[in-house]
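Now for our specimen.

. . .
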Amino acid sequence: MSTPLRPRPTGWPVGSFDSYEDAQAAVDKLADLQFPVKDLTIVGVDLMEVERVTGRLTWGRVIGGGALSGAWIGVFFGLLFGLLGGGFFIPLLTGVAIGVVFGLITAAVPYAMSAGRRDFTSRTEIVAGRYDVLADPARAAEARDIIARSGLTRKANPAG
């Protein structure tokens, strides 16, 4: 049998938190008290993939974004060729011009091929319903007691 590439986390739960920041604060508190934090793991539980829509996608935004990203790549290559070949203005101008053309093409072609099926921009993230801190079983009781004494316990979620 082969070893999994990403082994599941092990340990005993010593705290459960509504946010990653709260779980981090608990681990930080343990670190401040010289607890061996290498024996801890923060685990996101009840994971969801959330796509947050950030705006409408138009031809103007596609062309503008493609031209801008292409121009930056062109600046990089223009400066590189300027350093290698002597002179900066002509290689820089040429690099920006070629970059803008390629940026426009690489942005406009996929957008045109989508035929309006995705006329919005978005950002995707993974969020968890809660964050558990796991500890090595040999030190779990100690970690749990420190977290409980520090007041860093899970807060009730009013939404459920």
